[in-house]
Amino acid sequence: MSATLFDPAEQKNAAVFLAAYENKLASEVKAGENRGRRLAHDFVVREWIGPIVFGERLKVEESRALPLLPGVDPKNLGVAAFVQNRSTSEVLQALMLPACAGS
After folding, report:
1. What is the dihedral of CA 4, 92, 23, 51, to 10 degrees?
2. Cis peptide before 98 (omega within 30 of 0)
3. Rounded CA gap, 58 and 12, in Å?
4. pLDDT higher for 85 or 66?
5. Rounded to an integer, what distance in angstroms lies between the CA atom of residue 35 and that of residue 30?
């Protein structure tokens, strides 16, 4: 992962966050108004990394391997990355990619 800030004024407050997520999960509800129902869940965060701060060169370069959970179908996994101003909560840029199964 590589990220570059184009506005030096953002360096103090900007940080990168990564979220590995899983889709097509479900839960059986045992109590409450949804008791007896099966609820579907997408974009469930399984791994959260951050904040990763920008260095003096206004750049972040990271290489991370996120292990797959046993029995998980890689087709249901993905990674979201975003740069956020931590003082205002404004998201400056975001992207989402499917997971790589690896080799």
Report:
1. 60
2. no
3. 10
4. 85
5. 5
Residue carrying structure tokens 């080799």? 103
Asked whether the beta carbons of 96 and 79 are under 8 A apart, the reply is yes
Rounded CA-CA distance 85/32 in Å is 38
Task: Yes or no: say if 3 and 14 are a contact pair by the CB < 8 Å rule.
Answer: no
Q: Name the token pair of 2.
A: 């590589």
Give 30-72 pLDDT, tens digit per residue: 999 999 999 999 999 999 999 999 988 899 988 877 777 778 8
Helical (H) or strand (E) element with 4: strand 2-4
- In order, the DSSP letters of 20-77 are EEE-SEEEE--SSTTTT-EEEE-SEEEEEEEEEE--TTSEEE-----PPPTT--GGGE
- Show Cβ contacts of residue 103 under 8 Å, excluding neighbours closer than 6 positions: none
